Amino acid sequence: MNQPGPHGTREPARPGAGQATGGEAGVIGIALAAVLTAALAQGSWQWFATYVGVTLLAVVCSFYALPAWTPGLRTAYVRKLVAFALTVGLCVAITLAPMLQRWAWLFPMEGTRSGCGELGRYESLRAEAELAQLSGRDRTALARAQQARSHVAVADCLSATTTLWLPLYGAGAAVLVGAGVWSCGRARARRESGPAASR
Length: 199
Description:
Blueprint: H1 17-40, H2 47-63, H3 76-102, H4 114-130, H5 139-198
Helix pairs in contact: 1-2, 1-3, 2-3, 3-5, 4-5
């Protein structure tokens, strides 16, 4: 319930005040969840990371509302916009991680993937040397063991390499989101101030 004002009347509730507070807390929680997801990720990036990233993006875009656009770089609007953009960038990075690991066209950095193939071949040779007793008994089992060891080694290598580049993708997404939201907010503020100035 609203508390009475100094003259005994109740002060009207400010629209969106509770929503803004909840939205800020939600962004903090989403950022922590994203960081925890990245910190606990072991081995190769799996598609569940994409699901987590998309879910967090949906939550932050649905429940977080930025305040009205205000000019200047030291305003509360800019601080909240930076937090919003960085959180979105983090979620985008987590979403893209399995794709970067698996799709060469999305992760085309020169020389970053070739070493992983060589590591896979090395692990295949190691498996053959360690399981040499199977060569005379079950060549199919040996081939499968070699393939499994090679696959794990390549996946882990690509995951580690991908993780090194994820900050670049996340920062790029944050810059694009921040610039886009700031431009839209400024344009909306100018449209709203136009009719008011003409009166």
